[in-house]
Write a structure and sequence with these properties.
It is built from 5 helices and 9 strands, in the order βααββββααβαβββ. By secondary structure, it is an alpha+beta fold. The chain has a 7-stranded antiparallel β-sheet. The protein has a two-stranded antiparallel ribbon with strand order 7-8. A hairpin with a 4-residue loop joins strand 7 and strand 8.
């Protein structure tokens, strides 16, 4: 099993507002999300015309699923954006990284969220923040940020700084907080 891309963002949407977001996604009103899907459609031809849907997730969450592996999982306070793009590709491929950052920026703008946190979906200490979105914990993005600061130290200054190459392997070390200063 590999490690995939994830981003965590704060939100204040209720279930009805999550449904409205799904309608906005289906009307293609979120520009960067549409651009990313258009990039991926040639590799996912069966997803052409696939609608976004809302459904009950695990652990008290609500999920929006869309074409080309796009998944947004909502706890009461945090949106967990996950995609099958490999974490290593996100760290090293600047074009792919920019697409994922822009998708995350679209979400942050929609939620009026000031930042997003990028961590791998598994295999690292930082990925432990996933535990905080389930109903038995249900923490907000500021709690998650403080947990990372206490246990994983300060965020990396650049996304590429997370990638560590060793003689026989590579590793993911750290996390990145995106304030979207390059996209505003």
């Amino acid at each position: 099993m590999g490690t995939n891309f994830t981003a965590f963002l704060g939100h204040k949407l209720n279930r009805d507002e999550i449904q409205i977001l799904c309608h906005a996604l289906n009307s293609r009103s979120l520009k960067h999300i549409n651009e990313f899907i258009n990039l991926l459609l040639p590799h996912n031809p069966k997803d052409k015309g696939k609608p976004w849907t809302v459904h009950k997730g695990i652990g008290g969450t609500v999920e929006i699923s869309g074409p080309c592996g796009m998944e947004f999982t909502f706890s009461e306070k945090v949106c967990y954006f996950h995609h099958y793009i490999r974490w290593r590709s996100f760290l090293l491929d600047e074009e792919l990284q920019l697409y994922l950052k822009k998708v995350t920026f679209d979400l942050a703008s929609y939620f009026s969220s000031t930042y997003a946190i990028y961590v791998p979906d598994n295999g690292s200490k930082e990925s432990g923040i996933l535990d905080f979105i389930w109903e038995d914990k249900n923490k907000d993005i500021d709690y998650i940020m403080n947990w990372l600061l206490e246990r994983c130290w300060t965020p990396k200054e650049k996304i590429i700084d997370i990638y560590k190459e060793y003689e026989d392997y590579w590793d993911s070390e750290g996390y990145y907080v995106d304030y979207f200063s390059d996209l505003k």
